[in-house]
Amino acid sequence: MRIPVLSLLIFTLLFILFPMHFARMVLGVACFRIFVLGPQGPIEGAFVTIGKKTGVFVTDGMGGIRVPSHLIGSEYSVAAEGYFITHGLLSNKTQNVFPRKLSGVDFSDYAWVHPLEGSQNCSECHQSIALEWKQSGHSRSSTSHRFLDMYSERKNNGNLIQGWSLSRDFPEGKAVCAACHAPGVGAGNDGIEDITKVTGVDKFGIHCDFCHKVNGVKNLEVGLSHGRDFLSLSRPDKGQVFFGPIKDAMRDDNSFSKIFKQSNYCASCHEGTMFGVHVYSTFSEWQKSPAAAKGMECQACHMKPDGLMGNVAPGKGGIDRNPMEMASHQMMPGGLQKMLQNSIQHETKVIKGTNDCTVGVQLKAVNVGHKIPTGYIDRHLILHVKAMSNEGELKPLDGDRIPSWVDQSMHGDAGVLLGRPLLHPDKQFTQPFWQWGGGVVVDSRLEPENEKKWSWRFSKKVEKVKVSLIYRPFWKEQQLTKKWNDLDVVVFEKIIRAD
Ligand code: HEC
Ligand code: HEC
Ligand code: HEC
Ligand code: HEC
Ligand code: HEC
Questions:
Q1: Would you place residue 371 in the very low, low, confident or very high pLDDT band (cuts 50, 70, 90)?
Q2: Which ligand has its closest atom nearest to the C-alpha of 478?
Q3: Contact 409/388 with Cβ under 8 angstroms?
Q4: How far apart, in whole angstroms, are the C-alpha atoms of residue 411 and residue 365?
Q5: Is the C-beta atom of 98 inside 6 A of ligand 5?
Q6: Engineering a disulfide at 411: which of 9, 199, 329, 404 sits with its beta carbon 3.0 to 4.6 angstroms away?
Q7: What is the spatial distance between Cα 33 and Cα 47, in angstroms, rounded to a whole number?
Q8: Atom 3 (ligand 5): residue with closest C-alpha?
């Protein structure tokens, strides 16, 4: 009696665990093999998508996969690095699939396709992606007025640039910037030596066609070769090719590349040492972050699907997909202020004693893949604490004070700077990275998941305390000199009564 019960149990268990194998073994459901082959033989690790719901099969060392026969009649797509995505209809005659191989050569004479205008422009078919991209800094990286106000010697109207100017003060460094800010500019083009001379598609900075001609990264040291020089491109001499993350993309010029889901892709431009200064360190901060340990790449936060686009080319040959799997090209989902607010936790305590009043502030960066702030070296946060009595403002009795080079109007107030100031040796003002003499950069930014605490003591007359955290993309003095609008982003501001 016991044996049949046990075998029934095993039978059911096997059926639940391995329905496919088991059905084939025991019930004799037929499977058949297809092989993915290249000019040099089997392609291992190719991705085969069959129908919409079966998931993705990966080919073995012989280029083969085993397909249950009931899938006959479904559409299939085969994606492999270095090949165009191939489509077909599974029939019982399907045995070998031969994807078309890419030339593997990068033709530097290729003319970039315009993102927004003219023949075959990307926006014509990928309109919602184009709108997202246009909102991102990527579309303005070679023309934004603040970048040019730092880079150039003169304004468009011929007036001299006030304040910091790379072209005036360190012209030897001018050719370095295009590698990331105008990566499509090719050898021999005037735009390399002087980015203000970029023309045509290069005016769109980091544009669609550039990013989607990337098929990998070179085996070079990240941070020391920049942007264009770190990325491996494959521009066609004839025809077209677009690399991307979709394994069953429908156009015959599409090619899958895994690099699109990896932080390494972004590292090309978001890590950079220039003139001996570690100006951009976002990628290396990410490498040390808890987010990286959890396997969250840059794209997981910055290109997070917003659920609004299910078809990348509606009416133009695109197919409907799960909108929660389609990336957004906006890069700062919800905007900088929201992102800062969601990633900085804060707590303030005001304690009135018999002799004095203590204000304690605690900040912690969460849900972020790097320090806060990150990116351009001049980005900083100012934590500003103001104590008021009936008679007016009170100066702190002890605790950190805001130095004058952060902001004249806050000089001496209770507060701290969270940033990487490149201070002049006399410690009176900050310098641009291209003029910094070198030495250790003091870095006081927030590290992910690491709490920071400060406290200040004021006289016991304190009635209320105002605590604010402000994000500033550039040093105040330069903003004033260059007559830019106020660029402050208020992360939080709160008023606490002391009682
Ligand atoms: C900075 C480089 C960059 C630029 C510029 C860029 N893309 Fe992408 N694109 C990517 C990356 C990276 C992904 C993959 C993101 C993911 O899947 O997480 C992607 C994904 C895609 C996809 C696949 C569908 C999706 O959204 O997941 C399409 C189609 C696409 N991009 C088209 C475009 C078009 C059109 C433009 C210009 C309007 C553009 N891209 C600009 C890097 C870029
Ligand atoms: C070819 C160089 C290049 C590549 C590749 C690149 N970036 Fe950028 N990125 C830039 C530059 C340059 C800027 C600054 C643009 C400006 O404001 O002038 C920028 C700006 C940004 C910003 C700031 C927000 C904004 O809209 O300005 C974010 C976030 C960002 N990139 C994320 C990414 C991520 C994530 C990837 C990888 C999927 C990536 N970038 C790939 C060069 C690049
Ligand atoms: C005539 C219409 C059309 C134009 C123009 C066009 N595309 Fe596409 N593109 C498509 C279609 C259709 C797909 C496949 C969509 C699908 O599978 O749902 C596609 C797919 C893609 C993919 C996905 C590849 C993959 O494997 O992940 C990328 C990336 C892409 N296009 C980039 C571009 C860029 C960049 C431009 C401009 C230089 C451009 N496309 C111009 C129609 C177009
Ligand atoms: C876990 C989510 C997460 C990951 C992963 C992540 N970021 Fe961010 N990123 C954020 C948040 C939140 C902000 C806004 C707060 C701040 O400025 O640091 C931000 C801001 C930025 C900015 C804007 C900086 C500025 O002030 O101009 C850039 C550029 C950027 N990230 C690039 C990257 C790159 C490149 C990677 C991968 C190496 C990456 N991020 C990984 C969440 C993330
Ligand atoms: C390794 C790639 C790389 C190189 C090389 C590079 N940059 Fe950048 N640059 C970036 C990235 C990425 C950002 C955006 C970071 C962020 O959003 O904080 C940026 C942002 C900036 C900004 C801020 C723009 C704004 O509107 O907020 C300025 C100014 C700037 N860069 C100047 C320069 C100058 C001048 C050079 C040449 C000496 C240069 N960069 C070279 C990658 C690069």
A1: very high
A2: 5
A3: no
A4: 26
A5: no
A6: 404
A7: 14
A8: 180
